[in-house]
UniProtKB/TrEMBL annotation:
Enzyme class: transferase
Entire protein: shown range: 105 to 593 of 967
EC number: 2.4.1.15
Ranges annotated as spanning the membrane: none
Keyword terms, alphabetized: Glycosyltransferase, Transferase
Organism: Rhynchospora pubera
Descriptive protein name: alpha,alpha-trehalose-phosphate synthase (UDP-forming)
Cellular component per GO, a single term: cytosol
An example Gene Ontology molecular-function term: alpha,alpha-trehalose-phosphate synthase (UDP-forming) activity
Length: 489
């Protein structure tokens, strides 16, 4: 069968990602409390029928004693999670270093770190070694838990070395890899010192997936130009073996958002927000505080808009909700203070005794508060400088069933390829252009708004996270594993 190796049996899936979808807090020597973080990936996989998924990943805490590790394993097992234990040094070099300081900026076109070239080059070696070692630690856990017939789905730039580790151990294992970030142009990618090792390792997978066709094309170009392999419409060929490469645009669990809007608590919240901002249009930004999200650019564009459109000054408010991430990294600290400074300046310039134009919050909101905010928003502003997909744009659309507000969306977010016909697409670097689009969005006729919304809403509610996961898993099942190919020949 397409799904499931035996009739009536569920397809077993091992999902491997750097982070498990739970946060663990230690309560005592052998006790842990766990909280499920309901991200897109979790709800995507919960919704896939006939699949029995287990998660393998790092729990976000370093546990060095055996009693603690055993207790955590037991607690996680109840949530279908299996931990990979990394130590502090590995986390520092692999996660903070190679993943977040090298691959993340490079994949978003920010280049390799340049402050001190020699130091970077020296660090690079040891960080790459730690990256490979960490990936091998993930592989060891997968191998311990793998049973024949399982499919293994590896996620993201943290685990590019994993497909190779897995296949070396067991060439019959079905292995898929999906990248959540952009894959950059091969001209950017080729600056990476370990470019060939990583490509070869990813190619060990049976199926390689990206959010957009462009990212898939960039990946295939990197393989042809850097490794001299052959790209075909199906993927990349190396000595008769095909690695299937394709686009699998992610979606959200749109029903979850629609259901939330019907809850009395959320309705009450919506009512409060509506009263609070009565007489003003609400503009919204929701981002992790990351350089790729273009938050300073967004706020500067809003300032430009206030400058150019004095009539709007007391009739509009921008709510920018930015969850701090990677707070121990100096660049991220710099970004936070930069954003605070710009916001302060603009509020000083355009604020009145009773109202300020920008409310900036450095924190995350719970799911219900977030839904209420999305629902009362007139214009959402997504100005990512680069973004694999951007789910905030999808979530906003899902919550706008009655309001039918406008989405201003960066053309450099993967979402621009799916919501492009409904959104106002902008180049976030062009502050004047974004400012003009803010004005257009705020004064748009209701006919145009509804037409645009209808397009986006249809897309978001029909291309869901469940469809995404189902398509990927079923394509992975359909790939022919190398070992089977050999026996057929
Ligand atoms: P992210 O870079 O995290 O994801 P995004 O896709 O927008 O970006 O997802 C962010 C998620 O976090 C959303 O579900 C959003 O609701 C939530 N969130 C953000 N800020 C929040 C806040 N202040 N309070 C509460 N929740 C908040 C990476 C890639 C993306 C890709 C996804 C999925 O960078 O391009 O779309 O993975 O593949």
């Amino acid at each position: 069968g397409r799904r499931g190796t035996l009739k009536g049996m569920k397809q077993r899936l091992l999902v491997v990602a750097n982070r498990l979808p739970v946060s663990a807090v230690r309560r005592g020597e052998d006790s842990w409390s766990l909280e499920i973080s309901a991200g897109g990936l979790v709800s995507a996989l919960l919704g896939v029928k006939d699949v029995d998924a287990k998660w393998i990943g790092w729990a976000g805490v370093n546990v060095s004693d055996e009693v603690g590790q055993r207790a955590l394993k037991r607690a996680l097992a109840e949530k279908r999670c299996i931990p990979v234990f990394l130590d502090e040094e590995i986390v520092h070099q692999y996660y903070n270093g190679y993943c977040n300081n090298i691959l993340w900026p490079l994949f978003h076109y920010l280049g390799l770190p340049q402050e001190d070239r020699l130091a970077t080059t020296r660090n690079f070696e040891s960080q790459f070694n730690a990256y490979k070692r960490a990936n091998q630690m993930f592989a060891d856990v997968v191998n311990q838990h793998y049973q024949e017939g399982d499919v293994v789905w590896c996620h993201d730039y943290h685990l590019m070395f994993l497909p190779k580790c897995l296949k070396e151990h067991n060439s019959k294992m079905k292995v898929g890899w999906f990248l959540h970030t952009p894959f950059p142009s091969s001209e950017i990618y080729r600056t990476l010192p370990s470019r060939s090792d990583l490509l070869r390792s990813v190619l060990a997978a049976d199926l390689v997936g990206f959010h957009t066709y462009d990212y898939a094309r960039h990946f295939v170009s990197a393989c042809t130009r850097i490794l001299g392999l052959e790209g075909t419409p199906e993927g990349v060929e190396d000595q008769g073996r095909l690695t299937r490469v394709a686009a699998f645009p992610i979606g959200i669990d749109s029903d979850r958002f629609k259901r939330a809007l019907d809850l009395p608590a959320v309705k009450k919240h919506v009512q409060e927000l509506t009263q609070r901002f009565a007489g003003r249009k609400v503009m919204l930004g929701v981002d992790r505080l990351d350089m790729i999200k273009g938050i300073p650019q967004k706020i500067l564009a809003f300032e430009k808009f206030l400058e150019e459109s004095p009539d709007w000054r007391d009739k509009v408010v921008l709510l920018q909700i930015a969850v701090p991430t990677r707070t121990d990294v100096p660049e991220y600290q710099k970004l936070t203070s930069q954003v605070h400074e710009i916001v302060g300046r603009i509020n000083g310039r355009f604020g009145t005794l009773t109202a300020v134009p920008i409310h900036h919050l450095d924190r995350s909101l719970d799911f219900h508060a977030l839904c209420a905010l999305y629902a009362v928003t007139d214009v959402a502003l997504v100005t990512s400088l680069r973004d694999g997909m951007n789910l905030v744009s999808y979530e906003f659309v899902a919550c706008q069933g009655s309001k039918k507000g406008v989405l201003i969306l960066s053309e450099f977010a993967g979402a621009a390829q799916s919501l492009g016909a409904g959104a106002l697409l902008v180049n976030p670097w062009n502050i004047t252009e974004v400012a003009k689009n803010i004005e257009h969005a705020l004064s748009m006729t209701s006919e145009e708004r509804e037409k645009r919304h209808r397009h986006n809403y249809a897309h978001v509610t029909t291309h869901t996270a469940q469809d995404w996961a189902e398509t990927f898993v079923s394509e992975l099942n359909d790939t022919i594993v190398e070992a089977q190919l050999r026996t057929r020949q």
